[in-house]
Amino acid sequence: MYTLLAFISIFGIIVFLHELGHFLAARSVGVRVDKFYVGFDFFGLGYKVYENNGTEYGIGLFPFGGYCKIAGMVDESLDDTVTGGDDEFNSKNTMQKLWILSAGVIMNFLLAILLFFFVFIFYGESTLAPVAYNIINDKPAFNAGMEPGSTITAINGNEIFEWSDIAKNLSSIDKQRMVTIDYIFNNQYKQIRLEPEIIQDENGKRGIIGIERVPDDIIQLHVDKYIIFQKIGFLKAIEMSFVAPLSIISLQIGGLSQLISGNIGLDNLGGPIKITQMAGEAAKFGAAYFLQFMAMISTILGFMNILPIPGLDGGHGLMAIIEGLSQRKIPLKIKMGIQQFAVLLILGLTFFILINDIKNL
């Protein structure tokens, strides 16, 4: 139940704000919105609350976000009612159409930026704690008495916040030069002095002390123990709030290219069940993790929606651009056919991903 509530909270907020973006953008350029529902209005099973200025407001039967029916636009409802009125989607110019279609994605990205900023300013930037999971026998750290599970806090007085800081501080160490290492073990602060071992590799000479980081599978089981938040300044928080979504989008582009090239199989795709599990896990580890997870999902949904795929906002946007460049309207029958294909495609993909989720439980 806890996991389900986390999933509903995430998708409820993200999808509702996405649809609210379409609603506000449509109204801003004089396009009528036939329906605006909190929750999905599948098969017209929602409850109508009231009606005003041609818009029916209500509550959907399924509590996952919202639904916005823009007048004169062929969407997943497959409603082909287009009267040609000046308050309908088709009556507007290309830029106005693109504004309406992109507003949902813009809301997703704005939500992600605000959530990341909140986490960065109040909690800090999350990093992997420099925990020495394993101490290698007969290496400097072992010989100096460091215990497995120690968290390194400083090297020669320089604070250590993440694993990369250890390598940076040891990269310029010369042979026969002693270093002082401060660390925490069993909540006790300790200090040792040792002489790093100097090795030569493709990156040049560097010092090592003989420790191994926590494996990823253990990190996933004990996130609260091995992930730490490092406080950052206001300007850095603003910068990271934009960098984080861009990094997620970059990863999504890389994943899609790997999927298209065949380097990643379709069986690796995850859907609602997997996201529900991840939402529940994120919520268990506290507000910072939960809000970051919500920001990540909002970014991914925004990115996926902007792709020029039939049925998605990007697909509708592509048709609007084609109409604008050709100065000709795409026939309603063709739009209906494209939307019907899109509905079947999305339903088929959803079913396939659900099967993947069930197999990977």
Short structural summary:
This protein is an alpha+beta fold and 361 residues long. 50% of the residues lie in helices and 21% in strands. It folds into 2 domains: 2-124 and 238-359, no CATH class; 127-229, PDZ domain (Pdz3 Domain), CATH 2.30.42.
Task: List key phrases describing it.
361 residues; alpha+beta; Pdz3 Domain; six-stranded antiparallel sheet; 14 strands; 21% strand; elongated
| Structure class | alpha+beta
The profile of the biggest β sheet is: 6 strands, antiparallel
The SSE order reads: HEEEEHEEHEEHEEEEEHHEHHHHH
Q: Quote the distance from N terminus to C terminus.
A: 17 Å
Total strands: the figure is 14
| Stretches with pLDDT under 50, minimum 5 residues | none
Helix content: 40-55%
Number of domains: 2
Shape: elongated
Percent strand equals: 15-25%
The tally of helices reads 11
Radius of gyration: 26 Å
Query: What oligomeric assembly is this protein in?
Result: single chain
What value does the average pLDDT take? 84
Description:
This protein is α+β, with helices and mostly antiparallel strands and 361 residues long. It folds into two domains: 2-124 and 238-359, no CATH class; 127-229, Pdz3 Domain (Roll), CATH 2.30.42.10. 50% of the residues lie in helices and 21% in strands. It is built from eleven helices and 14 strands. The strands form four sheets. Strands 6, 7, 8, 9, 10 and 13 form a six-stranded antiparallel β-sheet that branches. A four-stranded mixed β-sheet has the order 2-3-1-4. A two-stranded antiparallel sheet has the order 5-14. The longest helix has 29 residues, at 94-122. The radius of gyration is 26 Å and the shape is elongated. The two termini are 17 Å apart. The relative contact order is 0.13.
